[in-house]
Amino acid sequence: MSHPQYVQIVFSSKYAELREALSGVVHSGDTLWVVNDETTHLERFSADGTDAHGNPLFSNHTRFAVADYLDLPAGDGKEIDTEGLACQDGWLWFIGSHSLTREKPDGKDAVEKVFRQLSTVSREGNRFLLARLPLDDQHTPQTTLQQGQTLRHAARLQGDANGNDLTQALANDPHLQAFLNIPCKENGLDIEGLAVNGERVFLGLRGPVLRGWACILELQPVEDAHDPALLRLSPIGENGALYRKHFLKLDGLGVRDLCVDGDDLLILAGPTMSAEGAERVYRWRGGANPQQESAVEGKELRAILEIPVSEDDHAEGICLFSTSDGKTDLLVVYDPAADSRLPDKKTVNADLFVLDG
Q1: Phi, psi of 9 (to 5 degrees)
Q2: What is the mean pLDDT of residues 265-276?
Q3: Which of 272, 304, 271, 273 has its CA nearest to residue 287?
Q4: Which end of the chain is more exposed for a tag (fewer CB within 10 A), N or C?
Q5: Which residues are 190's β-sheet partners?
């Protein structure tokens, strides 16, 4: 990949601070969606030509409250920790991290307070969210939408404030069960990547990473037979398992985001723990259409982009981006975003790389 251009994303003045921490992105036609993981909203932008340097520009910021379409497990006041977006066949998919949190001490606090904070682990119900919203022709989410002879419904995976069908299915998993009660950023379960290909949904785990092997889960959610506002996991694995596992050698890194490129899966990878480390994009050949569980390394998996690392600039979301000349590039957003990406009080510049591998 060559040195990136950029895409300008212009937020409304009232919510401009959101631009400094974008955890997911997806591009569809003239519409760009992003999320900030500390909210319960989805942010939509419309194509607005180019800036003075010929870079694509998106403005007309519109916010959509997830609680207007779905019954959130913990209500509208608690963050979803949304970590991934995908747009497929008229659906907008998004996912929470499914992670636990530990309080973060201030180094200036007294020893007793630090000890107390380090012993406090929280379970936040809205993080256990895997959901989809139907989009109309104007890319506006709907609670219900008639499409031909089919009535589409906004829906989320069955669950409550303590977990959902996925965490229940993983509770007996020989590889992952031990990490369900470990906080994120400590190699505990932490979902940060989302990609959708047909009926299959791929979830990339930032953690755990096991002996250098990262994990991607493959699911097949379907509408609940009795409640169309709910999704259930249908059997997809051996012996009726509700998920498949794919372990990948990503040089010790965890998954930060995913996107589908034909039959391939592009993987944004970075450190699992709260520490600086390499950030790069891999291409998993055939990864968007696997026929069985897999352990992937070697020629099937190739690093195609090394992202420069700095203390105040971390790549957090990727998506394919269709350019005006008919080419497909890779868009990268950041959390946090360095000051150099903030040209004014409302705008953030996201990197646009040419795909060449």
Answers
A1: -120, 120
A2: 91
A3: 304
A4: C
A5: 207
Are 147 and 90 spatial neighbours (Cβ–Cβ below 8 Å)? Answer: yes
State both tokens at 98. Answer: 């499914």
Q: What is the mean pLDDT of residues 97-116?
A: 87
pLDDT tens column, 320-340 = 998 877 789 999 999 999 999
Q: How sure is the predictor about 1, in pLDDT bands with cuts at 50, 70 and 90?
A: very low
Phi, psi dihedrals of residue 108, rounded to the nearest 5°: -90, -5
Other CB atoms within 10 Å distance of the CB of residue 259: 28
284 sits in which H/E element: strand 279-284
Ramachandran assignment for 136, one of left (phi > 0), alpha (psi -120 to 50 degrees), beta (any other)? beta
Asked if 76 and 86 count as a contact pair (C-beta separation under 8 A), the reply is no
Helix (H) or strand (E) holding 249: strand 244-249
* Among 247, 253, 260, CA closest to 280: 253
Predicted pLDDT at 298: 85
Helix (H) or strand (E) holding 41: strand 41-50
Q: Which residues contact 224 (CB under 8 A, 6 or more apart)?
A: 155, 158, 230, 231, 232
Q: Which residues contact 209 (CB under 8 A, 6 or more apart)?
A: 187, 215, 252, 253, 254, 272
- DSSP designation for 272: S
Residue 67 predicted with pLDDT over 60: yes
Is residue 35 within 8 A of residue 22, CB to CB? The reply is yes
Instruction: Identify the CA nearest to 318 among candidates 355, 357, 287, 345.
Output: 355
Q: How far apart are CA 338 and CA 313, in angstroms?
A: 5
